[in-house]
Design goal:
Layout lengths: L7 H5 L3 E5 L4 H7 L9 E4 L17 E5 H11 L4 H16 L4 H7 L5
Parallel strand pairs: 1-3
Antiparallel strand pairs: 2-3
């Protein structure tokens, strides 16, 4: 997070970073996923593009990083530095915080290729 350029770094300071071994069953259910190993990260909150001063959101913007799926992807790929992989997951989830959809992100970040 500290390596982000401005103005993104100062805006991202409000986002809490949480780490868990695996996503919980509620997270998986909400996303329609069955396999917890398919989810490396998750943004929970209201994107900046949907926030309003007249309707303040009382929930904490949070990015979850899931250790076991990240480590499994890192091990399976074998061609990427672990720090680069974690950074990619964080930036992907921050993009959701800034209001980008998965489709928006995919147009500039072809990480899986």
């Amino acid at each position: 997070m500290a390596g982000l350029p401005e103005p993104f770094r100062s805006r991202a300071e409000v986002v809490q970073l949480r780490i868990a071994d695996l996503p919980d069953t509620d997270m998986l259910h909400e996303l329609g996923l069955r396999d917890p190993m398919t989810l490396t990260g998750l943004y929970e909150g209201v994107p900046l593009t949907h926030k309003s001063a007249s309707h303040p959101d009382m929930t904490q913007d949070t990015i979850w990083l899931f250790v076991q799926p990240i480590m499994a992807e890192w091990n399976a790929r074998g061609d990427v530095d672990l720090n680069d992989l974690v950074s990619n997951v964080v930036v992907h989830e921050l993009a959701h915080f800034f209001g980008w959809s998965d489709e928006d992100i995919a147009t500039i970040d072809r990480w899986w290729e």
